[in-house]
Specification:
Radius of gyration: 11 Å
Order of helices and strands: HHEEHH
Oligomer: single chain
Strand content: 5-15%
Structural class: mainly alpha
């Protein structure tokens, strides 16, 4: 898994895949949390703006995935 993404579409695709793996019970919540934490720490300015997922990523990810990302980020 690549850590730093400059292209928002590629970042959204990576986030979407990770969250979908969790929602499809392919990975556990703990693995989801570890992977998302790594991505959030490396790309925080590209993922969040004023404490919320950026509008561009929100449009590409959808409400359900954004809710999962927000839950993980608020815990960590």
């Amino acid at each position: 898994m690549k850590k730093v993404y400059k292209d928002p579409k590629k970042l959204a695709a990576c986030l979407r895949d990770i969250v979908d793996f969790y929602l499809d019970d392919v990975i556990t919540y703990d693995k989801l949390k570890v992977r998302l934490t790594i991505l959030i720490n490396a790309n925080e300015d590209r993922i969040f703006k004023d404490g919320n997922v950026t509008s561009k990523l929100s449009a590409l990810l959808g409400e359900t995935r954004v809710a999962v990302i927000n839950k993980v980020s608020s815990e960590g």
